[in-house]
Amino acid sequence: MRQTTIRSAIAFAILMCASGTAVHAQDASEKEIERYRAMISDPMSNPGFLAVDRGEVLWSQKRGTKDVSLETCDLGQGPGKLEGAFAKLPRYFKDADKVMDTEQRLLWCMTNIQGLDTKDVIARRFSGPGRASDMEDLVAFIANKSSGMKIDIPLAHPKEQEMAAVGEALFYRRGGVNDFSCATCHAEEGKRIRLQGLPDLSKPGKLPQETMGGWPTYRVSQGALRTMQHRLWDCYRQQRWPVPEYASDALTALTVFLQKQAAGGELNVPSIKR
Amino acid sequence: MTSSLKIAALALTAGIFTALPFAASAQTVAKSADPAIVDAYVKATFGKAPAEWQERIVPDETLKTCNAYHNNVPSAEADKIVKRELAKVVYPADGKFLGDWKEGRKVANNGRGGQFSDPPDTVAGGNCYACHQLEKSEVSFGTLGPSLTNYGKDRKYAPDEIKNAYTKIYDSQAVFACSNMPRFGANKVLNEQQIKDLVALLFDPDSPVNK
Questions:
Q1: B192 vs A158, A234, B111, B171, B187, CA distance in Å?
Q2: Strand arrangement of the beta sheet that strand A271-273 belongs to
Q3: Which of A28, B39, B40, B208 has the fewest C-beta atoms under 10 angstroms from its C-beta?
Q4: CA A220, CA A73: separation in Å to the nearest integer?
Q5: What are the tens digits of pLDDT across the range A143-193?
Q6: Do A195 and B140 touch (CB under 8 A)?
Q7: Which of A37-41, A236-240, B181-185, B190-194 has the lowest mean pLDDT?
Q8: Which residues face A74 on adjacent strands?
Q9: Does the pLDDT of residue A2 top 60, yes or no?
């Protein structure tokens, strides 16, 4: 009897040690990844901050038929007020009578304040080798002015509420030859595609907060600063949907929904990701 | 007294259990946006794509139901879906479900096809490893779907299981309503031979899936 107790105690101890080791190893590698992330998030080593600097130049550069800068552009906090503006976007703008994300608002300001033909800017919406993107640089600069702040988009206006409801419907809308929706990959916790972990964005809280708090980001695999516009474009590509129109309403609706899920999450941007 | 309390408690529990699904679905329905408004948004974002591409994102009757319930369909709706999708399954004329597992292995590993970045003549694969574990030697597998390791062996290579697997790959929703898995045959992503080859990957005793 006594021997059995001792034996089972030993077995239990071994079991605990074994599982403890596994947990410990996992913790250790996660800590390493965290350390690596912290290291490359340093403004001195994250290439995303080069985009921030280029965006700052573009913001004050005189362009368009009116030869003025974007410095009077109202991103929701008043003309030229950038601090905290990104954390509260997308939002409803009375002058445009529309809910807009950062990109849509910038294009509106280019057209209406600068008199700039945005055709070339849109053609360069995503940067590539030897091709800079004004939009990526400007968004990086503007988003950085909200770094350390909490995501807090307004949802009082009926059009903002419509956007959130449509965004949710789009999140679950299946289509394309493979019947995929956003929810196919992002509605369950702890899942992965091949080896890539997938955040559950279907429930408000930590996971959407961490996801949305990290965009725009410098994508190491692409060697480029990317914004949510590119992330959603690439998601729809992988979903086998048609090409989404840049800075269009369904993308803004999805962004509203995701920002709503991420409310209270702290922005740390530009971040750096795989 | 005690027994009446027990009955009350039972009634209450039963009430909660029956009320819950209704409450959940009612909430889902009430919160959801007007489908006409959603369609207008879809048009604004995808309206410039070629007609053939746009047709792909028009939900059919089955997907309409799945979308409305966020894939958690009540059983009556689920039965309708399974019946409708089962009618779409075309079984091999020769009655043979097993192809070549070596070819099936290629189909399982191929993630190309159907993306707007793919050349139009791209032969689509099943991309099975994105979601499932198959061969034990392949460590890069997703977990959105269940592990399929030893699939045939665990089912003792039973003929009805072989037919079920063919059905499931051809049209996942003919087996499980609002399954996350693509309807490979019904949506013409994979042809009959490719599906047979995948069934062989699962059920051939020589397949590495069963080793």
A1: 50, 30, 18, 12, 12
A2: A224-226, A217-219, A271-273
A3: A28
A4: 31
A5: 999 999 999 999 999 999 999 999 999 999 999 999 999 999 999 999 999
A6: yes
A7: A37-41
A8: A79
A9: no
Rounded to two decimals, the pTM is: 0.86
Secondary structure class of A93 (helix, strand, coil): strand
* Cα–Cα nearest to B68, from A54, A174, A231: A174
Rounded distance between C-alpha atoms, residue B78 and residue B58, angstroms: 20
Strand partners, A271: A217
Give the minimum alpha-carbon distance from B118 to chain A in angstroms, rounded to a whole number: 10
> Nearest-5° angle of CA A121, CA A125, CA A130?
90
Provide φ and ψ at A36, rounded to 5°.
-60, -45
Has residue A17 got a pLDDT over 80? no
Pairwise CA distance, residues A219 & A226, whole Å: 7
Angle formed at CA A267 by CA A264 and CA A269, multiple of 5 degrees: 170
Residue A170 has its nearest CB partner, among B31, B38, B139, at B38
Alpha helices for chain B (secondary structure H) = 2-31, 35-46, 51-55, 61-68, 75-86, 101-109, 151-154, 159-170, 192-203
B44-64 burial: b if 16+ Cβ within 10 Å, else e: bbbeebeeebbebbebbebbe
Residue A198 is inside which H or E element, if any?
A: strand A196-198
Å between B171 CA and nearest CA of chain A: 11
Cis peptide before A216 (omega within 30 of 0): yes
ipTM for the assembly: 0.86
Q: Do A162 and B189 touch (CB under 8 A)?
A: no
Q: Is A152 on the interface with B (CB under 8 A)?
A: no
Q: Which residue has the tokens 């700052």?
A: A56
φ and ψ at residue A267, rounded to 5 degrees: -80, 135
Helix segments in chain A, DSSP class H? 2-40, 48-60, 102-109, 119-123, 134-144, 158-172, 182-186, 206-212, 228-238, 249-261
Q: What does the radius of gyration of chain A's CA atoms come to, in whole angstroms?
A: 22
Sorted by sequence, the CB contacts under 8 Å of residue B21 that are 6+ apart come out as B74
